[in-house]
Amino acid sequence: MWHLKLFAVLIIFLLLSGQADGSPVWQLSSPKRRLRRMTPFWRGVSLRPIGASCRDDSECVTRLCRKRRCSLSVAQE
Question: What pLDDT is recorded for position 12?
Answer without folding.
Answer: 85
